[in-house]
Amino acid sequence: MIIxxxxxxxxxxxxxxxxxxxxxxxxxxxxxxEILLGEKVFISQQNVPAIAGNHLFSTENDAKKVGELxxxxxxxxxxxxxxxxxxxxxxxxWK
Length: 95
Fold this sequence. Notes:
Largest sheet: 5 strands, antiparallel
Radius of gyration: 12 Å
Order of helices and strands: EEEEEHH
Number of strands: 5
Shape: globular
Distance between the termini: 16 Å
Strand content: 25-35%
Helix content: 10-25%
């Protein structure tokens, strides 16, 4: 597996919330994301959540949208769990 990190971290970037930071990761044949807390990986999501099997995000943008939703849930002190309904609302495709 090849992982390349692309970090989104400007002070005005909506991907940084309460010490959490989002980065997308390029995986051989697709995309995933990681949520960092400080400099430590808090969540590493290399497959599309809520979907049976090992499906990767088709695009970096899809991985980023789901990661941003996870950040929002964490910011509101909710479970970061992603549902099939969440994926449908975000119009997420997978491989």
